[in-house]
Amino acid sequence: MEPKLYKEYVEDGTLRIEWRDFQYRGQESVNAAVAARAAQAQGRFWEYHDLLYEEQSSGFSDENLVAFAEKADLDMQRFEADYDSARYAALVQADFQEGQSIGVNGTPTFFINDQALVGLQPIGVFENAIEDAEREAGGG
Amino acid sequence: MARGPITLLVLGALAATIFVGCAAGSGNSSQPSAERQAPETSNSSKAEGTGSSGRTSGERLGHPALGSADAPVVMTEYSDYQ
What we know:
heterodimer, A: 140 residues, mainly alpha, 2 domains, 7 helices, B: 82 residues, alpha+beta, two-stranded antiparallel sheet
């Protein structure tokens, strides 16, 4: 879904996609989010994010998260230091709390401007919501 | 007898000084809040580097984002990796 929306709406400046961590499936889930933020610190969040989804089935043990970082061509010394220190855990936790405060209780949950879309939806649902939001914003 | 006008002049000058001081003070008190807000706004669009995929990643560790900070539509995705 994301690549299509990126091509259709992000590239022409209509849409901005913002990520929020909502890690509620246990410690490995939280660790994966912290590792992704450590990758973000090196400017490679989306590469690591994509790897996490691609490698979902192998699990998010510490060893795997480090291996993904190598695959994403990160500075390993810096990554391991950031990951081990749980330096970015507070960011992940803050996103989770923010989500809870606005009623998020499962993933994925999307907000297109003010419209909530809960769960995976056909691409057309997103396209319609984005175009509606653009019209409401006076851009279409 | 001459003390009356002098006292009035001194009081007038004092009042003017206090007024100018207050005006400057109120200006100073609002300015920092504007300065505090400005970096957040500008950083949200500038603090992104280009990754190898051509997409961008937040360098300042704001929320990871793709696309222009000025886009009329923002899709916020709450998700996990499992």
